[in-house]
Amino acid sequence: MESGKQIYFRNGYILTMNERNQVYENGDLLVQEDKILAVGEVASELVKPDAEIIDLKGKYLLPGFVNTHVHTSQQISRGVGDDVDFMTWLHKRMWPFESNMTEEDSYVSTLMCCLELIRSGVTSFAEPGGQFVSGMVKAVTEAGLRGKLAKSVMDCGEGLPLVWQRTMEEELEQQTEDLKRYHNSADGRVQIWYGLRTIFNNTDELILRTKELADHYQAGVHMHVAEAKSEVEYTKEVYGESTVTHLHRLGVLDKNLLAVHTVWLTDEEVDLFQEYDVKVSHNPASAMRVLGFAKIPQMLDKNICVSIGTDGASSSNRMDIVDEMWLTSLIHKGWRLDSTVVPSQDILCMATKNGARALLDEHLYGSLEQGKKADLIIINPNGPSMMPVNDRIAALVTSMHSTNIESTMCDGKWLMKDRKILTLDEDAIVNEAQKRSEAIYKRAGIVLPDRFPVIRR
């Protein structure tokens, strides 16, 4: 945005997601450059004569959604894990695919992922780790999103591809080099975190050193934690205790740990998350494939910071946080046999301000408040998929589709306006992604089965 340039939003149904979750009916919001200047009632003297005026005509105005766990480098592997068991997915599909990617592949995959994130109203996300942080940084910078980017870090484990077999020191040095080079680039939108893939593939020393470095550089640690039943069984066999209990004994449970999935926690371990302010990324679609039911209702009751992530296209296929919100509203009611748990208002908090808090950025975005970043989305409910709207809050979770998201703004700049992507060449990226995906499948020797008889000509 030009220096001092203003955008004045009028007549919107504004969900501020502030501390009191205030809503303004027929409310206004004023953006100047990259920040929110006023919200709710805007004094006329604040609005410059040349301000761009947007009449929302009753449409929703919300903070941009925050996706706290998305594997951008897996976007072009979509379909690689459908209908196979976990070990086949990991050793015969995912690892061969990912280990055959180049830096340019990672760049294109991240661009492809950014398209889907923008279209689903995401303005900020956390990447748990690909192999080429440089490629991810380039893509996120061009897309205009905010990203907490990390490297996928492993220093042990069976079956790792040769190219991934690195020492602890090599992994730590690479991450710190990435941080020094890219942290706070793209006007502060791109930041580097430390990554830990999983306790299967991380030694205790690596986990401890990672925590020390993250604290030193005031960064977060992004880790898959208590993801699968087999993981907890492994840690009990190797360490004599389950994953979270072991991490607690190591002393790494803390406010800058983003723990992903967290399906297999005991009640006592949930209490540990509460005590140490550990942040949680709930990925319902990925969990439903094979992992199980996380204790989200219990975590919310204890005011644990629970956010929402989509995981990667190799396990979830859809990087659409709107779908994840809808699924979150259903699965916990189902397994608890209680239709009152995890209500829509809690899910909206998870997807906005909880997400910002999980990424240690609650002072910057996650709510529409004076002085915060202009990260926002316009939602148009008009249409058969969402109308009629009676419960305006619930409709955003139970009825909305990502196609209802009309425009996405990050840092005061339009990424999508009236459903048109403005920062990227969508057609070119989609075509390039298809070519690169097919080439990687071929290099990796991955052959997907014909599900129905195919006549090839």
UniProtKB/TrEMBL annotation:
This is 5-methylthioadenosine/S-adenosylhomocysteine deaminase. GO terms for molecular function: hydrolase activity, acting on carbon-nitrogen (but not peptide) bonds. Coiled coil: none annotated. Pfam families: Amidohydro_1. It comes from Faecalicatena contorta. The keyword Hydrolase applies. Gene3D superfamilies: Metal-dependent hydrolases, Urease, subunit C, domain 1. It comes from the Bacteria. Keywords: Hydrolase. Residues 60-415 form the Amidohydrolase-related domain.
